Amino acid sequence: MALFQKSKSFVNDEKRFHDVFEQSAIGESMVDLQGRWIEVNERLCKITGYSKKELIGKKFADITYKDDVEKSLNSMRDLLSGKIQYINLEKRYVQKNGNIIWVLLSIALFKNGDNKPHYFIVHTQDINNFKKTEQQLRDLEEKYSAIVENGSDGIIIVQDGLIKFCNGKVKELTGYSIDEIVEKSFLFLIGSDYKERIKRNYESRMAGGKTEQRYRIELIKKNDGAIPFEISGYIINYEGRPADMVFMRDISDLLKKEKEEKTRVEQIEKINKLAVGRELRMVELKKEIDELKKKYQSKR
After folding, report:
1. What pTM, to 2 d.p., does this model score?
2. Hey, is 36 helix, strand or coil?
3. Which residues contact 86 (CB under 8 A, 6 or more apart)?
4. How many whole angstroms from its chain centre is CA 54?
5. 262: buried, middle or exposed (CB in 10 Å: 19+, 13-18, 0-12)?
6. Which of 15, 150, 226, 276 allows an S-S link to 218, with CB 3.0 to 4.6 Å?
7. Is 151-254 in the same CATH topology as 11-128?
8. CA-CA distance, 50 to 206, in Å (whole number)?
9. Domain at 151-254, CATH from 3.40.1090.10, 3.30.450.20, 2.60.40.10, 3.90.380.10
10. Dihedral of alpha carbons 2, 7, 8, 13, sign
11. 195-211: per-residue pLDDT in tens?
12. What is the CATH number assigned to the segment(s) 11-128?
């Protein structure tokens, strides 16, 4: 009777295992020591696009993307040698329709009662959307980095009053190397007439207060020259903490044009003033002539 109860329990355990195996939300499989599938569930079939009949007996390397075959084999060798107990491995499968899909494999080696390797237990998760998003973020980061490094504006990031980052444009404009700028107080670049104003705006912005959004200052070059700049700052999250991201634009040419425009306006106003004066003088002369004519006519 006890033997019967034990056998019944074993059967129940096996059924529960089979049910969990089949109904799992991730791909489940057993792979023999030669890399052939000996059991697969429906989820793995959906991931790969192959039916159970097509997968069982097929080597996993047969549908593994060619560049990922070697690292898959190396992982199995490491498990068999006892070098590692389990492994998580990102790789690509080539689906039946020819599409490539990224998966995350969690692999462990199952051993029998004699502690000898019997087969591999493999959990397979579809991470294709995650990898696409990861690549998109990487592409955006590269584009952002290119914009930051190659843009026409100087960019610095200030945190705790120190410059934590500056792009190549700042180096080009000021003559300082990046090493001479990073980890220095941001005020060392600011002309003396503007230090207090900049310090006040920075502290207010970091405290969440209202500040000037855009203003003009002078930056000090390494050779003691000064450059007129227009700057604007924005609060960002930098390495997990608030920081001030400052855009700096050299406005030397802009000021030159503004000065030229002002000179032209002044010249035009002067000419206009002279023209109006002449006009007024002509009106006065006409009045004087008319009065003289009237006097002459009255005497006749």
Report:
1. 0.52
2. strand
3. 79, 106, 107, 108, 109
4. 42
5. exposed
6. 226
7. yes
8. 57
9. 3.30.450.20
10. positive
11. 888 888 888 888 888 88
12. 3.30.450.20
